Amino acid sequence: xxxEITENIPAGDLSVNHKAGFVSIVGKPNVGKSTLMNQxxxxxxxxxTAKAQTTRHRIMGxxxxxxNGQEFQLVYSDTPGIIKPLYKLQESMMSFVRxxxxxxxxILFVTDIFELHDENDVIERLKKSEVPVLLLINKxxxxxxxxxxxxxxxxxxxxxxQEIIPISALNGFNTEHVFESIISRLxxxxxxxxxxxxxxxxxxxxxxxxxxxxxxxxxxxxxxxSSEVVVTGFKEKEDIIVIQxxxxxxxxxxxxxxxxxxxxMIKKTGIMAREELERFFGKKVFLEQFVKVxxxxxxxxxxxxxxxxxx
Length: 311
Ligand SMILES: Nc1nc2c(ncn2[C@@H]2O[C@H](COP(=O)(O)OP(=O)(O)OP(=O)(O)O)[C@@H](O)[C@H]2O)c(=O)[nH]1
Ligand SMILES: [Mg+2]
Fold this sequence. Notes:
Layout: E1 18-27, H1 33-41, E2 59-67, E3 70-78, H2 88-103, E4 106-112, H3 120-127, E5 133-138, H4 145-158, E6 163-166, H5 175-183, H6 203-218, E7 228-236, E8 240-249, H7 252-259, H8 264-281, E9 284-293, H9 301-306
Parallel strand pairs: 1-3, 1-4, 4-5, 5-6, 8-9
Antiparallel strand pairs: 2-3, 7-8
The chain binds guanosine-5'-triphosphate (GTP) and magnesium ion (MG).
Residues 33-34, 46, 54-55, 78 line the site of magnesium ion (MG).
């Protein structure tokens, strides 16, 4: 299991007594990439749902600390699950994945012990990169030792990784081992971000993601995939944050579903979002939501740019 290979490890600038690097978390949809990033960073930065393609952006989570007497900064990137894009939004999602693989010092290739995904498109992308890859077999909390061993054997046959590590991102099982493996491969480099920054994204982004998470949880079929959230107002007052959010959908029928009978469903979604926003920001939140039809926004380049889907 431990295939420690020390070649390929960038030494970086040895005169700097500090380690820093970019760690990209990639894999198929729904394997637990966002769960893992939150676990490794120790914050709930990325939204998580049981539905595939929850994450649409590259989201950085920054971890600073000291390891064996040396300061370090790990810049994790959570990314969208790798798929063959069918529409423009998904093309942008895949360009975020590409960018994060290009920047990486270490790649975490996350797989699911139970799902038999066709992982070839992930492997194709990783083949082009020279960066060390740690292959993580996730969700082993429900697996037997025998199933874990079988999966390790499968991956030893089918992929060349520097290490194969079975984990449970949900329970944090073996994630400390993952951290140690990353740190040992990190180059000497000054910090990339100020030490008090937790992420590269603004507060508004997290507000919109939290609302989107509740839409993913409350609606079925194509509705979550056709929805996008834009925070149009974010005012922090002394004791409350006032947030206005537009929810875009592609069709009038989806708007009706989102609202629900007598506005019941949107109200429920709003309450769930507000509670989560209050936890996230540690403050009272007043949330106003407006549902708008923006025909085919997922296909329109100009709209996607406006919504932040360009690199
Ligand atoms: N049992 C179990 N479930 C897990 C584990 N890690 C993640 N999950 C579940 O798997 C589902 C997907 O998790 P995410 O973290 O959103 O997966 P993702 O890879 O980020 O998915 P996309 O953003 O859609 O690509 C959620 O229901 C998680 O709770 C794990 O270690 N064990
Ligand atoms: Mg995700």
